[in-house]
Amino acid sequence: MEEKQSQAAPRGGYFAGWRWVPLPAVFAGLALSMVIGATSTLDPKEAAQIYEEFRGFVVGLTASPLGIFQNNFMIALLMSIPVAGAFLGAGIMYNSGVILSAASIAQRVDPMMLVLSTLIWPVGIMEMLAYSLASTQSLLLAYAGYKRMLRSEARNLAVTVAVVAVLLAASSVIEFTLLRVIRP
Fold first, then answer.
1. What is the pTM of this model?
2. In principle, which of 6, 114, 132, 157 could form an S-S bond with 27, CB 3.0–4.6 Å?
3. How many CB atoms lie within 10 A of CB 140?
4. Which of 88, 71, 82, 85 is nearest to 171 (CA)?
């Protein structure tokens, strides 16, 4: 009985160190996906079209912290889908990089400066951490399915979703406030 119990739930629960081992690699993978997208070559006309479409999208999105949160939380939930979420996350970050590439062409700046400013900005750090947690959780859910421990991992999923929601809610308020200062 005791052996079965230790297989079902590793000691330490949600905050056990083992579950965080893949987190830095997932963070790096998502950042690398963004870099690859940002360094992709775009035709100037295509870049202008992408940039203008994105600017139109952002205007409506940033009208309130709720709009920012809903967009980012939906992305994080997609990234939580077992196995597929990690690949969706990489694709989403690649597309974010392509948008940065288009912006760099439109604004005549180095795309890597835009990537770095995104990744070191407090909002960017909070969002990347949330996305990395969600993508890591997708891998942990797949592993739990393989080990037949989905019930215990479902509880961990709930905690991860709550942590991600708090991170993204806070980053949404900060981003909204900073955008109001930058663009009054």
1. 0.87
2. 132
3. 20
4. 71
pLDDT of residue 145: 87
Nearest in space to 133 (alpha carbons), one of 1, 14, 7: 14
* Short-list 99, 183, 80, 91, CA closest to 139: 80
Exposed (0-12), middle (13-18) or buried (19+): which is 59, by Cβ within 10 Å?
exposed
Q: What is the pLDDT averaged over residues 105-123?
A: 93
**Half-sphere exposure in the Cβ direction for 131 (13 Å, CA):** 31
Instruction: Please give the backbone phi and psi of residue 88, each rounded to the nearest 5 degrees, phi first.
Output: -60, -40
Please give the pLDDT value at position 12. 55
Residue recorded with tokens 């708090």? 166
Euclidean distance between CA atoms 104 and 124, whole angstroms:
17
